[in-house]
């Protein structure tokens, strides 16, 4: 109580999160929980905006939650829960959808990107209204701060607009959240195409470091990372995107600046850099994978954590929803 509230979530759209998710989000969540009242959600409602088999979704939801915990999110400190366990999300999303302009929703660029990629005729209305559900996720918890990457800025702006609009029309109800840009957040690029961000939806899996990959696979992917012409290890995202990405990963994991890391490679080559990156990444992943395995081996304990998280989430969400419903005239 009294601590600023934070909300964040990830979609359970793969069996393993990747190094970009870890360095750009998950590891930050662990740090943030120390001095914030954090709600970390597995957003499974969002995950059905694209077609997925029920068993696959169920498994990915559990695996995603287990990866939050394996990374160090502490369920005694933070509220860890699954979105569909709190029906308030879908209920508030309906209300917010009714104060969102059609044109306003149409301007969301991520929908445009994703629907074009999937073939626009096949994209669902759910994919279109996704940012409204995201607004509901955030507003239900009286969230002050939302850790966001650059790609999510526009959605948070919509959340703020909807909160302000609702408050103006129906009376003060929602906290208007602020973006929480974490200074040290690294943007991790694809190992094979270092001009694109590392992403689940990447063209080729060899550009990814999945957190749950076999150590041998991880080492091989890092060894095979695309580097740049020349031999000099230098931090320069424009001229040397591949080398700079590796330096960025090493910097993020060692707490140094990429420039300082680069300085240590005077007289050394790309091979030395890759060997060091592989070593540091594997050292970080070993305890993570160990904890993940333990968590999956005890399904009852994971269920208990998620049930407790849902209870706590609903305590907060139900109060906000009741207040909003009353304001609307329900
Ligand atoms: P993906 O693009 O792989 O589908 P998500 O969109 O589900 O990943 O992202 C989940 C979280 O991880 C978000 O907070 C996002 O900002 C962060 N994230 C995703 N990819 C990267 C990356 N390559 N570098 C840094 N952070 C990332
Ligand atoms: Na994304």
UniProtKB/TrEMBL annotation:
Domain of life, source organism: Bacteria
Subcellular location per the Swiss-Prot or TrEMBL entry: Cytoplasm
'KMSKS' region, short sequence motif: residues: 197-201
Annotated positions binding ATP: 11-13, 20-21, 149-151, 188, 197-201
Binding site for L-tryptophan: 137
Alphabetized InterPro entries for the sequence: aa-tRNA-synth_I_CS, aa-tRNA-synth_Ic, Rossmann-like_a/b/a_fold, Trp-tRNA-ligase, Trp-tRNA-ligase_bac-type, Trp-tRNA_synthetase
Transmembrane regions listed in the UniProt entry: none
Root EC class: ligase
Alphabetized PANTHER family for the sequence: TRYPTOPHAN--TRNA LIGASE, MITOCHONDRIAL (PTHR43766)
Family the UniProt entry places it in: Belongs to the class-I aminoacyl-tRNA synthetase family.
Protein name in UniProt: Tryptophan--tRNA ligase
Lineage start: Bacteria, Bacillati, Actinomycetota, Actinomycetes, Micrococcales
Name of the encoding gene: trpS
């Amino acid at each position: 109580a009294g601590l600023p509230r934070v909300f964040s979530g990830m979609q359970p759209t793969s069996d393993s999160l990747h190094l970009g998710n870890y360095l750009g989000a998950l590891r930050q969540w662990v740090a943030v929980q120390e001095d914030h009242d954090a709600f970390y959600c597995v957003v499974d409602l969002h995950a059905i905006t694209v077609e997925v088999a029920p068993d696959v979704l169920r498994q990915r939801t559990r695996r995603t939650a287990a990866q939050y915990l394996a990374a160090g999110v502490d369920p005694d400190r933070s509220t860890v829960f699954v979105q569909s366990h709190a029906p308030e999300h879908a209920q508030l999303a309906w209300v917010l959808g009714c104060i969102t302009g059609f044109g306003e929703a149409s301007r969301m660029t991520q929908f445009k990107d994703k629907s074009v990629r999937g073939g626009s005729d096949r994209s669902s209305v759910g994919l279109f209204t996704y940012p409204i559900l995201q607004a509901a996720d955030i507003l239900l918890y009286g969230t002050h701060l939302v850790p966001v990457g650059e790609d999510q800025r526009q959605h948070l702006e919509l959340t703020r607009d909807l909160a302000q609009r609702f408050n103006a029309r129906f009376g003060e109800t929602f906290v208007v959240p602020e973006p929480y840009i974490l200074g040290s957040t690294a943007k991790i690029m694809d190992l094979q195409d270092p001009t694109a961000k590392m992403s689940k939806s990447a063209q080729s899996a060899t550009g990814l470091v999945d957190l749950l990959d076999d150590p041998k696979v991880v080492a091989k992917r890092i060894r095979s990372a695309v580097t740049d012409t020349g031999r000099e290890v230098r931090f320069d995202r424009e001229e040397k995107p591949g080398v700079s990405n590796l330096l960025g990963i090493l910097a993020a994991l060692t707490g140094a600046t990429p420039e300082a890391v680069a300085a240590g490679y005077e007289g050394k080559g790309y091979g030395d850099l890759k060997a060091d990156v592989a070593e540091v990444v594997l050292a970080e992943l070993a305890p993570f994978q160990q904890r993940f395995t333990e968590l999956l081996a005890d399904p009852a304990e994971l269920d208990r954590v998620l049930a407790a998280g849902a209870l706590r989430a609903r305590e907060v969400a139900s109060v906000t929803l009741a207040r909003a419903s009353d304001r609307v005239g329900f």
